Each structure stands twice: as structure tokens, then as C-alpha cells.
């Protein structure tokens, strides 16, 4: 599709028909798009690669929005089918396996930093990931205590998982890889983060791996 500038589009949000959540919506020439993933301003090449993979390899109708402080990828959605599309496509009804796996990977990188680099670096990582949650407005991750809880809970047995959407998981895994590489200076953490996924049930593991492999982010976590 297109690479667009902020002045080309209108960005708003609509109320999810079943949940107390807002869905970000981009409007361009009468077409509507929902948020898929966001990237920092320094991640232009990653954003374009993600966008091209979705459009060229997966045949999805997507736009790449270029702003001074970030890049974002949006997928086409029909608002008259919002109730169906919001659950199925925008990710509000994500399988719990996706959330469990993403939290395990987050905790795995955090523990890896603490074990190999020490408590001070682990504290810095905690602040860095908290800033990611704040910047991209992750539900139930707005406070330092909430972030500590996410790094400590058992995702396999938690009574309640955060109500994140697919674009939140895309952003988390993108930023988690960036931070891991910055802290370790290489991608050695990827293998260890993948190892922790074996704590999942076989079904959950297979379900998450299928989703991740279909995503352009899968290349980062192999």
C-alpha cells in the first residue's frame, strides 16, 4: 500500500463494542485501518521491513505511517464489521497462549540480565521496559508496581492476564529484542528466551509459535 505522513491521515479511536477499550483507527481517503505495530524513530528500517513483509509476502492491505517520533503499521479494517473484526483481527480476543508466551519471554530476558549482568542492570532494564509500556499505553502496565507485578507473576497460573491487543504484543516483542540486544551486545538472549517457552503446554507452545512464525517479528526470535 502506502507510506503516509501524519498530515495525510486522521487518527481517532472507537469504542470496542463488547469491552471497555478504545481501538486506534487511522482514516485515509475514506479507508479505515487498525493499529498493528509501532516502532521508534530510530527503527525506520525495521518498520519498513515489517510493513513490506505484511504487504508483499502476506498480501495484507497495510499502510506505514511516518511521524517525527515514531513509525507505525496499520492494517485495513471495515468499521461496519467492527464487532467481528475487532475481536478477530485487532486482537482483543487474543488466545491466552500468546499472552502467556510473551510474558514468559519478557521475564526470561529480565532474569537473564539479572543473572548475567547483575542487579543494577536488571533495575535499569525494568525502568526501560516500564518506559515502553508507558509510551505505547499498555493497559495494566502504567505504574512501577504494575511493571514489577508483570515481571514476577506466573503467567501459566495467573488468574488474570493483561487485556493486551495484538499490536501490544508486536510492540513488546520488537522492543524486548531491541533492549536485549542493547544490554547483551548480541542476540545470545534469543535462544534462552525461546527455551523458557517450553514451560508452556505443548498446545500453547505450538499455537504461539505458529502465530510468531507468521509475523515478521518471527525472524528476530529465531
Automatic annotation (TrEMBL):
Classification via InterPro entries: DUF7469 (IPR055892), Npun_F0813-like (IPR054638)
Record protein name field: Uncharacterized protein
Phylogenetic placement of the source organism: Bacteria, Bacillati, Cyanobacteriota, Cyanophyceae, Oscillatoriophycideae
Organism: Oscillatoriales cyanobacterium SpSt-418
Pfam families named among the record's database cross-references: DUF7469 (PF24276)
Recorded superkingdom: Bacteria
Amino acid at each position: 500500500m502506502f507510506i503516509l505522513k501524519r498530515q495525510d491521515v486522521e487518527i481517532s479511536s472507537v469504542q470496542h463494542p463488547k469491552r471497555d477499550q478504545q481501538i486506534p483507527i487511522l482514516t485515509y481517503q475514506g479507508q479505515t485501518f487498525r493499529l498493528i505495530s509501532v516502532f521508534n524513530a530510530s527503527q525506520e528500517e525495521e518498520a519498513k521491513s515489517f510493513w513490506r513483509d505484511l504487504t508483499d509476502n502476506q498480501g495484507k492491505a497495510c499502510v506505514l505511517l511516518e511521524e517525527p517520533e515514531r513509525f507505525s503499521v496499520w492494517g485495513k479494517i471495515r468499521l461496519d464489521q467492527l464487532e467481528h473484526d475487532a475481536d478477530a483481527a485487532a486482537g482483543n480476543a487474543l488466545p491466552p497462549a500468546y499472552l502467556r508466551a510473551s510474558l514468559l519471554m519478557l521475564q526470561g530476558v529480565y532474569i537473564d540480565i539479572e543473572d548475567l549482568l547483575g542487579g543494577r542492570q536488571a533495575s535499569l532494564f525494568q525502568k526501560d521496559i516500564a518506559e515502553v509500556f508507558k509510551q505505547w499505553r499498555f493497559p495494566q502496565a502504567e505504574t512501577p508496581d504494575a511493571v514489577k507485578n508483570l515481571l514476577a507473576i506466573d503467567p501459566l497460573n495467573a488468574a488474570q492476564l493483561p487485556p493486551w491487543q495484538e499490536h501490544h504484543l508486536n510492540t513488546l516483542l520488537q522492543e524486548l529484542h531491541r533492549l536485549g540486544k542493547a544490554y547483551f551486545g548480541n542476540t545470545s538472549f534469543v535462544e534462552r528466551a525461546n527455551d523458557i517457552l517450553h514451560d508452556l503446554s505443548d498446545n500453547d507452545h505450538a499455537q504461539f509459535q505458529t502465530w510468531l512464525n507468521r509475523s515478521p517479528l518471527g525472524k528476530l526470535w529465531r
